[in-house]
Amino acid sequence: MCEKAYGACEGASPTWTTTPDYDSVESCVSQASNNGDTINITAGSADWSQPLTITKGIRLIGAGKTLTNITYTGSQTGTWLIMWYPTDYNYSFELSGITLNLNLSIGSVRLANYQAQYPVTGVKIHDNEFLNIGGNTGGYTSAGFEVRHPVYGVAYQNKFTGNSHMDNIGQNDVTLLNWKYGTVDYSKPEENFYYEDNIFDVSNTLATGGQGGRYLYRYNTFNINTTLSALWDAHGNSPNGTMISTTYGNKYTSATHGFSSSFALRGGKHLSFYNLYDVTAAETGGMYNEFRNEFFSFGYVKEAGPNYIRPCSSNVDGNTGTITSAGSTYIENIYAQFKLTLSSRDASIIIVEGTGKGQIRTIASGNTTTRMDVTTPFDVVPDNTSRYRICTPMTVSSSWDEGGKKLRIQSGAAAGTTGLDKSISTADPATNTLTITDTFSTIPSPGDRFEIYQTDPNLIYHQEQNDAYIFNNRFGSTLIGESIYDEKWDGSTATGGGYDWIEDTTKTSTAINMCGSTCYYMAIQLIDENGVYGESRNVNYTDPANKRIYVFPAWTTPPTAGTRYAKKSDVNNEVSNNVQFFNQQDAGFNGMAGIGCGTLVTLQNAAYYDNCTPGVGYWATNQTCNNTNLTALTGACTEAGGDRNIADFIKGTLYKCNANGNGWESYYTPYTYPHPLRSESAADTTAPAVPSGLSVQ
Prior knowledge:
There is one protein chain. With 697 residues, this protein is mainly beta. It has a 13-stranded mixed beta sheet, with helices on one face. Strands 4-7-10-13-18-21-24-27-30-46-47 form an 11-stranded mixed beta sheet, with no helix packed on it. A 9-stranded parallel beta sheet has the order 5-8-11-16-19-22-25-28-31. A hairpin with a 2-residue loop joins strand 49 (496-498) and strand 50 (501-503).
């Protein structure tokens, strides 16, 4: 008996065959069984004008990435051409043997588990080409490939071009199966989505994590074709926090482009090791890593009383500075770059220091890049001793009084006083008022910075920066990963300075203009001749033309020519080396700081075996601990067009000094490679034997 055919879709459960046109593929998908059917797409080319949404557990298999070609010709943006949204956590999905040309319009694939109280497993995306990935909506470039956890599986031997940025996020819902704060570790390596042996042509940050998600990239080759600010990104202590991010065995190549930092870590646990950076030194300006914490939310005080504040924001160019001249209805700062549209946003100006302190005035129309008019004359006219802050509207969020959140005043006279952190009573968007349960010992002043942070670990889905281990990542033979922000500019010498600025005419305009309108997360720290850190100040804005970086608040003593300085993370959100993060010591490791490397026998026989600093790491391996032969262990394997043999992979175990400082415990061993879901025979990844006296975490 002949099976019924729907267009060019033929067959019956569990096997179907279809031509690559949209209607035929969609027809097969609609007829397929809910779990386990295979849909084979024949060789040929087709244009799709709309995305395909799949809710079943199926295998979508093309004839080969050079044979089955699908091109997107529609007008939609901000979406993905293939979207898998399983309606049952028992379902799985496989996509293979297809070329998707996204025509620089939309993303390639989205895997989203909305039944997130349970994970979906066994997902495979392999041997595909995703070309000309796009995805721009209203100026926001969405991810070219997205995994919304919990989805466990592997993407391997694919090629990505265009906007190859990858999002790896959770469900942002603490009632579901998210990786909650304090519950995430490496004891179940199979609970992740792996990217391995893929080729990426890079024009954006490689990957972002957030909303309770995690990611792991290993043995991929990234060909960088544009200058990037950071390769890897992990959101932190906010509603979109990352739980774990892991990168190892990757290779980054470029003959003409570089990047400012290898990764920007603002929260979560992180492992980065044995990555090779074969990129130009000219555009990187040096190699450094960013470590900092993020808070749930922060802003500035516009008005305050004994038991409340009303907030504003200040994330605009020229958001604070020192007045160079003023009149009864205007202020001027000849070094500023004010936005010309501030008055239309109901923005205000607050005099935060000096003559006229405490006055708040609404900004009028007609301002220029260096002058702002106000709608009501000042009672006391500011002068060149006066500092200002621009205050733009910020609405109190109804979520600010949920889950045991607290209010912290970070700057001004109210900071550091008794009763610094206040429990939040109510958050009222209607009146834009945040009320605390008791009273301030010192009432915050207009312009003071505040933050909202979470206190109940059972209710939160963000993660502060912790347990980051960075070792044997190489830029040529140079070890990467020794600073917060400092390595990029550490040891730079100012050519001048003033009350609230520092000048360095030896830097390019691009180097000075390191943060544009988002300087609120960066800082400058002064260093004495012995390299000891002194005062730190947040960066306010930059003046590339005059090679100046403006800071707030003002220096206690203005820096002068010859002052050494370093760029670093936000001084309000600092993390510390050998506390929240650890870096490899190339020589002289003694168990007191950083990460050592060598055989387990070396660790067992070392003087620091039973006398070490808690948290300090040791990579136990019989492989190299330096740049020798690192090329052979990094990048995509030969079967994916790379240059590494699939039999060459990283072997070892990371140990950390225990909480008592008198022994070592196993912390991380790389998961089986190749991933067990792959068709290749898994190679032996047995870690070195654990010597007696060590415990397994």
